[in-house]
């Protein structure tokens, strides 16, 4: 079953290369965009034909894939992070696909670099087929701009570094670290964000040109009198839905991780088990040693099968669940963007009311015509800003509703895919395990035990018959050999010589019956010994 990002396989992230610039060390990735097979049926066009609304934020943005010319650029992780934050700013309210998290240690190991490359490729492909993001200007810049142009775009005022972007980065990139916190802390943080308090307490302060706006919005947030809309009740239900879903998915993901860990432990245990049997087989000779070695070889093969199975479980079961948790967090970020627009609109309305009051006061004051004129111009600017904030709030609210609806539709398909993949994986694994055991069984059955091919006292012992007409001769004792009889006589004689004491209470017939010897064994007459005492 194909995933949505599979439609953008013409975009690849490959060839990670490490660079060193003094004390700064980083890894670059090659991002290729190949021409789609048929421009008329490009993945972005197909994805947006049915679900994407007209773009009202950037009317001059064309479809990034209308240009069929291939391109190849070098990008580092911070460039992907720039694209992520720019998308939050350009298309506020959209569910932005998650980025792989940062890592402070072992970030240049081959395993980590390959894993990050794979996740970065998935991120770009998801953005390319996203109905709200495919035509964003920042995506086109990221995929096609040369180094100089891209560097200039990153340093344009307002394209990054403000408090909003810093908060997005701290909330999204370090999300895996926040997953270790308790659910109570998570709910507390989110309730604070819904009341207007910034979720990133350690976020840097905004730049100087945004301090006034930041204080105004903080004042409005503390007052708690936010503008109302007809959809407020619907958004309250969405908040409850995402909170409950996140809690349940965290539990499922934790159990899945524990299951994968246990399967890895089983694989290691089978390896140690097979090693022990191989060593034991080397200490034994003949057929027994061969049997033990075959058992050890089978256990080692089972260990390899189990290890491959646990790796596939991690890739096809554990990772999709973790990714789904990140997507739920992306939904919460979209709701947070809508709350920010609501807060901005409320602040603008409060400023307009204040400016109207000042204008009325200046007009009522004789000789304050100049101040009244300035207040009137300020009021017009405030009303214009309020109108823009209202339109942005309405646009983001509608976008969030579309995105949540799309998320619910795709959630069912994604969970169905994950569960089916897991079931198929378990069926294949158990078939392989059964096959290894089934191949081992006839090998062990073909090996005879050491006593299976031995001979009895007579040639007919194999079938239970004897040469004297089927009667058991007197010199053959059932369950005992002649060597055992001789040994018994010698032991008794030695015991008598050692103790030299006669025990009249001993019942010799009892000893005969216990040994099953009958009358075939003759004991020495000890009468003379007794009389000589």
What does this structure look like?
The chain has 533 residues and is mostly helical. Helix content is 63%, strand content 5%. The chain has 15 helices and three strands.
Spell out the key features of this protein:
5% strand, 63% helix, elongated, 3-stranded antiparallel beta sheet, 15 helices, mainly alpha, 533 residues, disordered C terminus
Quick overview of this protein structure:
With 533 residues, the chain is mainly alpha-helical.
Give the biggest sheet. 3 strands, antiparallel
Run of helices and strands? EEHEHHHHHHHHHHHHHH
Specify the overall morphology: elongated
Mean pLDDT: 75
How many beta-strand runs?
3
How much of the sequence lies in strands comes to 5-15%
Radius of gyration, whole Å: 41 Å
Task: Describe the secondary structure blueprint for this structure.
Layout: E1 11-21, E2 24-33, H1 43-51, E3 71-76, H2 77-90, H3 110-129, H4 137-144, H5 147-154, H6 163-172, H7 175-178, H8 183-194, H9 211-223, H10 232-283, H11 286-363, H12 369-445, H13 482-499, H14 508-515, H15 527-531
Antiparallel strand pairs: 1-2, 2-3
């Amino acid at each position: 079953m194909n995933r949505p990002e599979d439609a953008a396989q013409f975009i690849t992230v490959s060839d990670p290369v490490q660079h060193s610039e003094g004390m700064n060390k980083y890894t670059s990735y090659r991002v290729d965009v190949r021409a789609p097979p048929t421009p008329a049926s490009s993945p972005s066009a197909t994805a947006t034909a049915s679900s994407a609304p007209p773009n009202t934020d950037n009317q001059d943005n064309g479809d990034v894939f209308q240009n069929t010319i291939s391109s190849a650029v070098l990008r580092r992780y911070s460039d992907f992070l720039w694209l992520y934050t720019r998308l939050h700013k350009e298309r506020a309210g959209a569910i932005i696909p998650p980025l792989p998290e940062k890592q402070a240690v072992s970030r240049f190991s081959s395993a980590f670099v390959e894993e990050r490359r794979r996740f970065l490729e998935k991120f770009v492909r998801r953005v390319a087929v996203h109905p709200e993001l495919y035509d964003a200007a920042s995506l086109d810049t990221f995929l096609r701009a040369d180094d100089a142009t891209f560097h200039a775009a990153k340093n344009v005022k307002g394209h990054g570094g403000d408090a909003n972007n810093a908060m997005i980065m701290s909330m999204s990139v370090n999300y895996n670290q926040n997953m270790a916190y308790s659910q109570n802390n998570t709910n507390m943080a989110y309730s604070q964000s819904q009341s207007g308090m910034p979720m990133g307490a350690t976020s840097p302060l905004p730049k100087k040109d945004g301090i006034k706006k930041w204080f105004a919005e903080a004042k409005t947030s503390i007052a708690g009198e936010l503008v109302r809309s007809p959809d407020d009740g619907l958004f309250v239900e969405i908040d409850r839905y995402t909170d409950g879903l996140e809690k349940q998915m965290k539990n499922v993901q934790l159990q899945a991780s524990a299951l994968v860990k246990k399967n890895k432990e089983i694989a290691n245990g089978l390896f140690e088990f097979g090693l022990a049997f191989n060593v034991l087989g080397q200490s034994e000779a003949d057929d027994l040693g061969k049997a033990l070695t075959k058992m050890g070889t089978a256990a080692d093969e089972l260990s390899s099968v189990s290890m491959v199975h646990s790796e596939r479980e991690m890739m096809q079961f554990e990772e999709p669940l973790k990714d789904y948790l990140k997507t739920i967090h992306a939904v919460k970020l979209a709701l947070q963007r809508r709350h920010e627009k609501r807060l901005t609109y409320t602040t603008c309305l409060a400023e307009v009311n204040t400016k109207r009051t000042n204008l009325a006061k200046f007009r009522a004051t004789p000789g304050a015509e100049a101040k009244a004129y300035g207040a009137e111009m300020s009021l017009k600017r405030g009303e214009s800003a309020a109108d823009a904030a209202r339109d942005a709030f309405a646009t983001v609210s509608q976008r969030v509703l579309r995105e949540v609806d799309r998320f619910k539709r795709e959630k069912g398909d994604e969970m169905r895919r994950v569960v089916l993949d897991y079931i198929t994986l378990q069926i294949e694994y158990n078939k392989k395990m059964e096959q290894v055991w089934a191949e081992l069984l006839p090998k062990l059955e073909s090996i005879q035990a050491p006593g299976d091919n031995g001979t009895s006292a007579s040639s007919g012992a194999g079938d239970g018959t004897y040469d004297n007409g089927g009667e058991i001769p007197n010199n053959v004792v059932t369950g005992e050999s002649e060597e055992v009889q001789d040994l018994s006589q010698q032991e008794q004689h030695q015991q008598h010589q050692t103790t030299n004491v006669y025990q009249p209470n001993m019942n010799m017939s009892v000893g005969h019956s216990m040994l099953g010897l009958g009358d075939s064994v003759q004991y020495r007459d000890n009468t003379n010994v007794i009389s000589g005492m």
